[in-house]
Amino acid sequence: MTRPILRVETLRTYFPIQRGLLRRTAGFVRAVDGVTFDLLPGETIGIVGESGCGKSTLLRSIVGLIKPSSGTIQLDGNTLTASSRHNRQILQDMQMVFQNPYASLNPKMTIGSIIREPLQVLQLLSKDKWNSRVNELLQLVGLNPDDTMKFPHQFSGGQRQRIGIARALACSPRLLLLDEPVAALDVSIQAQVLNLLSDLQQDLGLTYVFVSHDLAVVRYLSTRILVLRQGRMIEMADTEELFANPLHPYTQTLLAAVPIPDPDAEQSMVTGDLVDTSAEAMQETTTLEISESEWKRVKPNHYVTVSA
Ligand SMILES: Nc1ncnc2c1ncn2[C@@H]1O[C@H](COP(=O)(O)OP(=O)(O)OP(=O)(O)O)[C@@H](O)[C@H]1O
After folding, report:
1. How many helices (H) and strands (E) does the chain have?
2. What range(s) does the ABC transporter domain occupy (predicted)?
3. Quick one: pLDDT at residue 276?
4. 52 alpha carbon to ligand 1 midpoint, in Å?
5. What integer pLDDT is reported at residue 261 of this predicted model?
6. Beta carbon of 225 within 6 Å of any ligand 1 atom
7. pLDDT tens for residues 151-173?
């Protein structure tokens, strides 16, 4: 059986609520509260749920931008600790793409230096190969390699997100954590960026964790969906199974809000071929080691919570 590239086990991230002059801890926001899932190579898991349910905190906890309160995260079978997170291979293997392409790029840096930065920081490749790698990355994301000396403000929103993706790909990661990567873009541009992500996944064999509040967008890209509510897992299933057979009332409510695609519409949201790159991976049943009292396993890959 294929080893999961990512294993998240009973992950909890709580933020203290501080009150009074002495800033005493009066309680905790349970932003992520016992999340467990495995991710096989080539899969895309979509994390969905309403605003504030903990989607971004989950991603940030996985990538190490926030220190989780408890639980374990394994990358390729290796448990991530404060010290192992400095390991070059781990830093290389897992990269994040942020929601806001306006805020996530340093406006004072040329895009050449923005994309080159991870190579410099991680000391990857020899210095004389950095420029050709930057050109290659720009081409990979559909941008002009002659534009390396331009600044972020000289690009459109969609192009800036492509720059963010090129930077995330600079050190050849295997796992991309995508936090609402198209939410800040116009719908027509969203389609182009989603198609790019799909093509890159196929061409480079990438694995994605994809966060969005937009279920229609998640449906295009994800092979499996995890529904979160107030930090807790509500339901998890293969994408089409979840859409066809949502079991938890909360999932049913979320799905009811997704507009049904109009077959006569001139332009569907995503054009071109979206190839399911994880067909092989999906042949396998992923395991979920959560207490039976909390989860009901209704099909090999369909779990629903019975306590929330
Ligand atoms: N640094 C922080 N300190 C305290 N509370 C926080 C912090 N970051 C997030 N939270 C709280 O944790 C909860 C989850 O927030 P998070 O941003 O992860 O949700 P989300 O599902 O990504 O929301 P959105 O879709 O609006 O981006 C929220 O109640 C939020 O207010």
Report:
1. 10, 12
2. 6-255
3. 32
4. 5
5. 55
6. no
7. 999 999 999 999 999 999 999 99
Query: Where do runs of H (alpha helix) occur along the chain?
Result: 55-63, 88-93, 111-121, 130-140, 157-169, 187-204, 215-221, 239-244, 249-256, 279-282
The highest-level CATH class for domain 6-259+285-305 is alpha beta
Q: To the nearest 10°, the Cα dihedral for 283, 193, 191, 150?
A: -170
What pLDDT, on a 0 to 100 scale, did the predictor assign at position 282? 35
The answer to whether ipTM exceeds 0.95 is yes
Domain range summary for the chain, segments of one domain joined by +: 6-259+285-305
Q: 54 in ligand 1 pocket by Cβ < 6 Å?
A: yes
Pocket test for ligand 1, best of 25, 32, 48, 55 (most atoms within 8 A of CB): 55
- Each residue's pLDDT tens digit, 269-304: 333 333 232 334 334 445 555 555 578 888 888 999
- Residue 30 Cα to ligand 1 midpoint, Å, equals 9
Which residue out of 12, 19, 30, 57 has the highest number of ligand 1 atoms within 8 Å of its CB and is therefore the one to mutate? 57
Residue 45 has pLDDT above 70, yes or no: yes
